[in-house]
Amino acid sequence: MLGAVRGYVRAVDAVNYRIGRIVMYGIFVLMGILLWSSVSKTFFVPSLWTLELAQFAMVAYYVLGGPYAIQMGSNVRMDLLYGGWSLRRKAWADLITVLFLIFYLGVMLYGALGSTAYSLGYWGSEPLSFFAGLVTGSEEVGRMEQSPSAWRPYLWPIKAVMALGLFLMLLQCLSELGKDVLRLKGEAV
């Protein structure tokens, strides 16, 4: 059992580490978009797409970088009490709090899947069956949602990225739960 937990932790950590290292360079993409926005407003006709694309890039950067931040422990903590605790007590506190985070991310993921299904033209109340139907061919993509801006991009790509990021965060939180269990069992992590 502990071997399976160790294998899961290694696999999820490896995937999220690689994705996080790639996504971390997305800040340069965002800087390039905003630089072009400034240049085009100053010297040319202002681009309609730059600020909305910058928002999409920031969402992707933040959501896909979240699992990496959780893995590296670079999220904000209140170390008022936590910093002085033993490793075992920290593991218990982390185990309890990560359960709340897993529940929260599960609810957020379900909402993100519903929003993504809506952006693909599904107006029902069962987004999971819609995606299963897309895979099997029993469902079709309907009228896709577009942004109300002048640029009018389709919204499903960024909503799919948000759902993917939440899914990866959920996997990383389960990995952190596994690490806490291993620490409580006295195993090296």
Q: How would you describe the overall organization of this protein?
A:
The structure is a single chain. The chain contains seven helices and no strands. With 189 residues, the chain is mostly helical. The chain has one domain. It is globular and about 60 Å long. The mean pLDDT is 93.
Key features of this structure:
189 residues; mainly alpha
> How many β-strand runs?
0
Tally of domains:
1
Number of helices: 7
- Proportion in β-strands: under 5%
State the helicity in percent bands: over 70%
Strand/helix succession: HHHHHHH
Mean pLDDT: 93
Give the class from helix and strand content and strand pairing.
Answer: mainly alpha
Q: Shape from CA axes?
A: globular
Distance separating the two termini: 15 Å
Radius of gyration, whole Å? 20 Å
Parts with pLDDT < 50 across at least 5 consecutive residues: none
What profile does the largest beta sheet have? none
Outline the secondary-structure elements.
Blueprint: H1 2-23, H2 26-43, H3 50-72, H4 79-82, H5 87-119, H6 127-136, H7 156-184
Could you provide a short overview of the structure?
The chain has 189 residues and is an all-alpha fold. It has helices at residues 2-23, 26-43, 50-72, 79-82, 87-119, 127-136, 156-184.
